[in-house]
Amino acid sequence: MYIFNMLTIDGFFEGTNKWEISWHNVDAEFHEFAAEQLNETGMLLFGRVTYEGMAKYWTSETASKNDPLISQLMNSVPKVVFSRTMSKADWSNTRLIKGNVSEEVQKLKSEGKKDIGILGSANLASSLIDNSLIDEYRIIINPVVLGKGSPMFLTTRPMPNIKLLRSRIFKSGNVLLTYGPK
């Protein structure tokens, strides 16, 4: 299971407002990477806030027009949203789980053959980090400094010891860093 997020140099995944991500440095090379990653992913996990934002965008006409391949992949891949407050999940191929996150994720990990990915979802990701359920951290650093915003890591325990597995430099200046257990 991996976490994927885009961060600023100073460690924020969004600005001070929810979905303040206009600084995301995306281009054709990024879209190619995103398609490769989604093709290797058997399931996506989301917390409620990220789910709502992703569902709103990826089911829109704008997404179909501007990002047709990624839109098709995002809409077709199986998804799970973890929420205690939602009553239903309408995005295609989505299952709503209200139970114990750690137990449910352990079950999901034992079922699949392909990667499980978590996109964004800082609260969910932190819960899974705290319970040692993350196998890989995929972080794209964008050459941007916001000064303030929402940090990616909200864990209540020290991060596990991790090591750099691979890196990739994009022509845009983005750098993908992939970390795993030491």
Explain what the structure shows.
It contains 6 helices and 10 strands, in the order E-E-H-E-H-H-H-E-E-H-E-H-E-E-E-E. With 182 residues, the protein is an alpha/beta fold. The chain has helices at residues 28-39, 48-58, 61-66, 68-76, 101-111, 122-130; strands at residues 2-8, 12-14, 41-47, 79-82, 94-97, 115-119, 136-142, 150-151, 162-169, 175-181. The longest helix has 12 residues, at 28-39. The two termini are 16 Å apart. The chain has an 8-stranded mixed β-sheet. A two-stranded antiparallel sheet has the order 2-8. The mean pLDDT is 92.
Q: What order do the SSEs take from the amino end to the carboxyl end, as H and E?
A: EEHEHHHEEHEHEEEE
Helical content (DSSP H or I, runs of 4+) = 25-40%
Strand arrangement, major sheet: 5-4-3-6-1-7-10-9
Number of continuous helical runs: 6
Tally of strands: 10
Shape: globular
Largest sheet: 8 strands, mixed
Structural class: alpha/beta
Low-confidence stretches: none
Instruction: Determine Rg (CA atoms, Å).
Output: 16 Å
Overall mean pLDDT stands at: 92
Strand content: 25-35%
- Cα(first) to Cα(last) distance is 16 Å
